[in-house]
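Technical note accompanying the year-one report. For the benefit of new consortium partners, we illustrate the data format agreed upon in the data management plan: each record pairs a sequence with a structure-token string. No post-processing was applied to the example shown here.
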Amino acid sequence: MFAVLFEPTADGQRYIDWLLSGLGWTLALAFFGWWIAFAVGIVVGIGRTVQNRAVAALARLYVEIFRNIPVLVQMFLWYFVLPEILPTTLGNAIKQIPPPWGSFFPALICLGLYTAARIAEQVRAGIEALPKGQTEAASALGLSSYLTYRHIIVPQALRLIVPSLTSEVMGIYKNTSVALTIGLMELTAQARQISEATFQTFTAFGAATLIYLALALIAYQGMALIDRAVRIPGTARTHDDIAPNLAEDIQQAGSLPAEMEIAK
């Protein structure tokens, strides 16, 4: 069924080479996007739990904006709109970035910031799942808020949310396919190109589907190994503690603020 993938193309390559090239861009986008999301998500998640109301409001504003706007719309905003609203010199410089980097960097920023909003809520849920007595004990020992978060709260919260982060790792691989809309020849874009060149649609997208499935399974197994390695002893069912908070988040996301409900 996949024999067509090994046939030569017009440029002297094979169709399988197109898929492997797309896989490379997919992996690069997911890998670097994940680390951007992880770093920003931790900072914003901590901001959601601090006592400073201004910081907490800014963190919530970030989450609500990036989580509630479809990733496809965000992709277009970063690629088409951002260069137009920046100063002319800077906007023209961005437009002149040669392909594929001109599409790669907007896609990377988009996926990183979008996924960060989702990770931030999980970090917040992990922090709020910890007993408040730990924060009080740290204060009693004279630790500042910064040292309490750095040495006590955040390390435990991150260990608690590893199971729920698994879906985000798997999700960012799938969301890389949206980058084809701004011209990045990642895995799905290469499958579409093969389909158009050979008219073997089932073969092209079937191969891409198997690759996405393999990536998801590898990510799942990797996160399972990390979970077993960093799991807090005696908290084997920590996801049960986090699940109610995540359910509350989903319920809150589905309801509008009071002012918006009145407007609706």
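Partners are asked to follow this layout when depositing records. The longest helix spans residues 15-47.
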